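Why show two proteins at once? Because comparison is the fastest way to build intuition. When a single record is shown, students tend to memorize it. When two are placed side by side, the eye starts asking what differs. So, the first record is below.
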Amino acid sequence: MNGVIVPFFQIQIVLMIAVVAPWLGLPSAWTGARAIVAYGLLAAAALLFLWVVRHNPLDNFSGRPEPPPGNRLITTGPYRFIRHPMYLALLLALAGITLLYGEPWRWLILAVLATVLHFKARLEERLLCERFPEYRQYQAHTKSILPFVL
């Protein structure tokens, strides 16, 4: 980042649109094992999203890495296990959609999006450490995006 402004939010939106781009073909799997897994990922994403907003109201969110004025640090619900559950919900949903479409190029775009979210989370966490001194301790005992893994 070193003084370079990276438009994470704009890049994130473009990549999300590219993954779900319906004008580039119809899903190839509406039924079958692949579809069941895809719908499972979509359901998991929806449930995680609902759990997130139960503990962290939407007015506490921002699509940008900078914490919005007046926001507060949330460490309950899914935040007990991971620091960025909304990113995980987004990735689960887009993985489900990508699986439905079955086109390899969508997986590539999803991998690029995951990389963008990783760097966006790192910047966001630096800013959260500045705003909330207790964030470093929270960071030390919770994973970033994947519970028990990353």
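Second record. Ask yourself what differs from the first in the token line.
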Amino acid sequence: MKKWMKMVATMMVAAMALTACGGSEAPADDAASGETYTVGIIQQLEHPALDAATQGFQDKLTELLGDSVTFDYQNAQGEQTNCTTIATKFVSNEVDLIMANATTALQSAAAATGDIPIVGTSVTDYVTAGVVDSNEAPGKNVTGASDLAPIDQQIAMLLELVPDVTKVGIVYCSAEPNSIYQSQLAQAELDKAGVAWAEYTAADSNEVQSVVTKAVSECDVLYVPTDNTMANNTEIIKNVAVPAGIPVIAGEEGICSGCGIATLSISYYDLGVKAAEMAYEILVNGANPAEMPIEYVSDGITEKYNPEIVEALGMTVPEGMVAIGE
């Protein structure tokens, strides 16, 4: 009996050992392995484009990681000092990754840490923002997705909608480097078309009304690139431009829905999704941000128009353009 009991005990120990080995050999996802990730999100301010990018990022990363990821979402309310404070807090809390939504948020995160991986979104040109060595090879702990829209096509759309234009006012915030970059691209396209242009820049929100008032008094049409300050003041732009009968071509859908007649814009939700896919590669597969080229959204770029303002200005749009909201 003692020999039999000893043999049974030996067999049980062997079975337990085999079970343990089998468990280690089986593929495990992050939830099963117990690996968890904390992602800090700095959003520069609230407006539809940035909100959509954050939502796309959270939705996709949750789809990929399930309960293994938690988000610490912080909105800086448009204040650079808040961006710095939030970024410093994330570094102190040793988050696994920072998602920086918009240029000032990204610059603050990059200044706060050279170690924690940073993925940006809603940023037009990462080199202009001063956070990478090049868009092809960032060389630092920063990578991300660009919201650069096809500005050549936007200007072509402007010329189609307002064929008798004599002068275009390019309106943006001078404190946003990516807006300066887009303005330069727009200027080059207008020069090619032989159309005069002038820049009208506001240092901050307090100057938007006076700058737009001057622009509509001197130009036939306004071009507003993807600019966070302008996006946060579309009601002011609308209240100046529409009564003056001046159409606005917008760099993205959120601005267009507030004050523009038309836009040719990427999907900011898709932009957030792409940033989430990059974050997953960093967190789970150990990808190095320094070696991850800046990515772009090439799908879903659609010509859209704002029916309310088009009607208010007595304009018509070509067939095939999609009304915002449809």
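One difference worth noting in the second protein: The longest strand covers residues 37-43.
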